[in-house]
Write a structure and sequence with these properties.
The chain is α+β, with helices and mostly antiparallel strands. It has twelve helices and 20 strands. It has two domains: about 230 residues, 3-Layer(bba) Sandwich (FAD/NAD(P)-binding domain); about 120 residues, D-Amino Acid Oxidase, subunit A, domain 2 (D-Amino Acid Oxidase, Chain A, domain 2). Strand 15 and strand 16 form a beta hairpin. The structure holds 8-demethyl-8-dimethylamino-flavin-adenine-dinucleotide and P-hydroxybenzoic acid (PHB).
């Protein structure tokens, strides 16, 4: 088989890139090592920047997102028993974020790909990129025990943090920067109305908590937990009790619970790969970088990488110029590092670290107090949260 762009990974970055390419008449094939239902079973991000919504529209996949997504004009920072609202809309000259689950965004992109006849090969085993430093790269994989090969012009490595693309690059050609945080997030999904109409990020001496949502009838809650915590140790009742303890009293009293239908623990990590291009192989999204979820940036960064790579590929095929492709790594990394910094800063400001003492807790509260009472400081937070321009 031959295609113009072979895409490894059918997560949000692979699907969004594939859809933009298909709309532009550029042939592409997506390969994933797992099946569609498995991908749709993963509960992850929930906050979309306007740039991500714009790209979904550009990929002609944004209709349901506009109909069912919840635009949010602000969120709360809770500490010292009180709520402090960050007015995203007022502080950024009219910008907002959209609450729409990654699962739904992925479902929309998959549905549109099927309608437009795009080829996705699910359950592809041993996917491997070859010869990407030369002019004729190709991919090999196995499906139901039979070996296959796809020749292509370019390979997009959209296969997440544990994927094969980054691992295929010789160690001497790549530099990785990493920070592991000494805690994780225990997340729960339940069909109960959200405790507040906007998100609440809570700093508490017992640890961080986040109240988020997927709709006005489905809530997503998280609590900070030790890295070695086991999800089996957390009954729903234990989770709700711990969440209540970390929220201001009026929210704790108003919290409505329901049986959970998903509970999982995610470790927190910052990770960046430099560069993001190796000959004709481009790393995109989580394959190239990971951020802790505190700033809600993971999925949005994947989308901005897709924007830069799609523009470069469109320029290559339509204008016969490689300028965009040559600039991909530098453009993407400039935005990535700013989001990495923001996510690290939000994480350090609202979590309890194992060595956080009374002094450090007071410093965090002073920073939060400054942040919520200084217009300059709130504006810096708001402009990063809604997303820096592409
Ligand atoms: P994905 O979504 O990981 O998709 C990669 C796809 O590649 C496939 N794959 C392979 N295919 C073929 N061959 C191989 N060898 C392969 N190896 C992997 C996988 O099956 C998968 O389908 O990466 P992508 O597209 O770059 O999208 C990035 C986002 O998914 C990610 O940034 C966010 O979900 C991060 N993230 C969160 N971000 C937020 O903004 N808010 C959150 O609350 C949030 N929660 C999370 C998260 C990421 C998590 N991970 C990665 C463990 C919670 C978790 C648990
Ligand atoms: C979520 O709804 O899953 C979510 C929202 C905001 C974050 C992280 C996760 O910062």
């Amino acid at each position: 088989m031959r295609t113009q762009v072979a895409i490894i990974g059918s997560g949000p970055s692979g699907l969004l890139l594939g859809q933009l390419l298909t709309e532009a008449g550029i042939d592409n094939v997506i390969l994933d090592r797992v099946g569609k239902d498995y991908i749709l079973g993963r509960v992850r991000a929930g906050v979309l920047e306007e740039g991500t919504v714009w790209l979904m529209d550009k990929a002609k996949s944004g209709a349901r997102l506009h109909a069912e997504g919840l635009p949010h004009d602000g969120f709360s920072l809770a500490f010292d028993g009180r709520d402090h609202r960050i007015d995203l809309h007022g502080l950024t000259g009219g910008k907002r974020v959209m609450i729409y689950g990654q699962t739904e965004l992925t479902r929309d992109l998959m549905a549109h790909r099927e309608q437009s006849g795009g080829l996705t090969i699910y359950d592809a085993a041993n996917v491997c990129p070859h010869e990407f430093e030369g002019a004729a790269p190709y991919i090999t994989y196995e499906k139901e025990g039979i070996a296959h090969r796809i020749d292509c012009d370019f390979i997009a490595g959209c296969d997440g943090f544990h994927g094969v693309s980054r691992k295929s690059v010789p160690a001497k050609a790549i530099r990785c920067f990493e920070k592991i945080y000494p805690f994780g997030w225990l997340g729960l999904l339940a069909d109960a109305p959200p405790v507040n109409h906007e998100l609440i990020y809570a700093n508490h001496p017992r640890g961080f908590a986040l109240c988020s949502m997927r709709s006005m009838t489905r809530s997503r809650y998280y609590i900070q937990c030790p890295l070695d915590e086991k999800v089996e140790n957390w009954s729903d009742d234990r989770f709700w009790d711990e969440l209540r303890r970390r929220l201001p009293a009026h929210h704790a009293e108003a919290l409505l619970t329901a049986p959970s239908f998903e509970k999982s623990i995610a470790p927190l990590r910052s990770f960046v790969t430099e560069p993001m291009r190796f000959g004709r192989l481009f790393l995109v999204g989580d394959a190239a970088h990971i951020v802790p979820p505190t700033g809600a940036k993971g999925l949005n960064l994947a989308a901005s990488d897709v924007h830069y790579l799609f523009s470069g590929l469109a320029e290559h095929y339509q204008d016969h110029s490689n300028a965009g492709l040559d600039a991909y790594s530098a453009h993407a990394l400039a935005r990535v590092w700013k989001a990495v910094r923001f996510s690290w800063w939000m994480t350090t400001m609202i979590h309890r670290f194992p060595d956080t003492g009374d002094f450090d807790q007071k410093i965090q509260e002073a920073e939060l107090d400054y942040l919520t009472h200084s217009r300059a400081a709130s504006t810096a937070l708001a402009e990063n949260y809604v997303g820096l321009p592409f």
